[in-house]
Amino acid sequence: MSSDITAEARDANVAAVAGTTVTLMCATTSSQQVRWNFRAVESKKLLVVHSGSEINPELVARHAVIPGKNTGRSRLVIVNVQLSDAGSYSCMLQTSTAKMFNTELTVIGDVSTQSAL
To answer: What residue numbers bound the domain in which 36 lies?
Structure first.
């Protein structure tokens, strides 16, 4: 059984275990720029993950955006998910009529370390 999670950005809630990989997807076309935003659970600050052209330097180590040029799906991949990654992710299609889809990511502590306590 794989510990990795893949979800559509339209999915309201996604849960992942810390240390796994999460992929959030957003339906798009090859001509649409996609902007990914993140708001942490306990923060009012909105953080731009990907502006449509580059990834936020603070997040580049564990976050990657794979454009949907050939697949019709822009993907936000978060490797080695941490508790600090929990929060609201939004995918905004940058067109003349901007569309936004939100996903809430819940991160559960590493099960292997919890069982050892």
So the answer is: 5-107
